[in-house]
Design a protein that fits this description.
35% of the residues lie in helices and 15% in strands. The chain has helices at 2-9, 30-40, 56-68, 79-88, 101-104, 138-141, 156-166, 179-192, 227-237, 251-261; strands at 17-18, 50-51, 72-75, 114-117, 124-128, 132-136, 145-148, 171-175, 198-202, 204-206, 272-274. The protein has a 3-stranded antiparallel β-sheet. It has a two-stranded parallel sheet with strand order 1-2.
């Protein structure tokens, strides 16, 4: 809802992209269900849906370009080995830090090869429309990151960076859990000479234990039979303060009011909110 209202309030175009690049984890029929649910809640996208599984050649070309420019290298290290090294070093972080072993040493024989992007150790910063100035050092904090996995699948960071440019995206509105991903994507944009984007990272909806609502956490799904009620609940969560007179209105009237009155300032500086 936040991204939709931001786009429509500004007179922009709102696009839908299905990130179906991980076949082993995909639930059959889930993508179609997502699209049907969006339609049931009145979302209208302005271009045909982009399916990342049909864009493999574009990602391969970008990866080859980075490798040819010596900005990426092959890696045979496993997540288990990297995690063990982190534990031995006394590191306890949410994201694994890759020590860069395969930059210098010979690749281990008989193993599939990932492709890692060489992350700069220079600080990266951007001004987020909700969270303010965000700074980070990807190379120091996280190390070189995977852009093509050992199973041959292209990683999220590379795919979305390439697709944002291909679709002419100017503004990205998404959850605050992707702030560190944005730092990685900015590095990729710079290396591939792609346009800079404007970002707004909205607060996450979390439960009373501060766990993000998600499928993996067992959160309850939406009820497509009550779209108006849940649209109003979402507006309340986003601190848009819909008036009481909007409660009995239909879905179209709710969207019309929300688009006209969208107020991003109501969320400024907030990373998460309990629901």
């Amino acid at each position: 809802m936040g991204s939709y209202l931001a786009a429509k309030h500004a007179g922009g175009r709102w696009l839908v992209r299905i990130e179906d690049l991980d076949p082993p984890r995909e639930v059959p029929g889930s993508a179609d269900q997502i699209l049907r649910t969006l339609e049931a809640f009145g979302f209208e996208w302005d271009e045909p849906v982009m399916w990342q599984s049909l864009r493999i050649d574009a990602y391969a070309a970008a990866a080859e370009r980075l490798q040819a420019a010596h900005l990426a290298y092959e890696c045979t290290c496993s997540r288990t080995e990297i995690a063990a090294a982190a534990r031995n070093a006394g590191l306890h972080t949410d994201e694994l830090h890759y020590p860069g072993w395969c930059r210098e040493r010979p690749l281990l024989p008989g193993r599939n090869r990932a492709l890692r992007f060489i992350a700069s150790t220079q600080p990266v910063s951007f001004i987020d429309a909700v969270q303010g100035e965000i700074k980070g050092n990807v190379g120091t904090d996280y190390g070189d990151f995977v852009i093509r996995r050992r199973d041959g699948q292209f990683a999220y960071q590379l795919a979305v960076t390439v697709d944002d440019a291909a679709q002419g995206i100017t503004h990205v509105v998404r959850g605050a859990d992707l702030l560190t991903s944005t730092l990685r994507q900015i590095l990729l944009q710079q290396s591939l000479e792609l346009p800079n984007l404007v970002y707004a990272h909205l607060p996450l909806a979390v439960d009373k234990s501060s766990v993000k609502l998600s499928k993996s956490a067992g959160s309850v799904g939406l009820d497509v039979g009550k779209p108006s009620v849940q649209l109003l609940q979402a507006l309340d969560f986003l601190r848009q303060e819909p008036p009481p007179g909007l409660r009995p209105c239909g879905m179209r009237d709710i969207w019309d009011w929300a688009i006209r009155h969208w107020n991003l300032d109501a969320l400024r500086g907030i990373r998460s909110m309990s629901i």
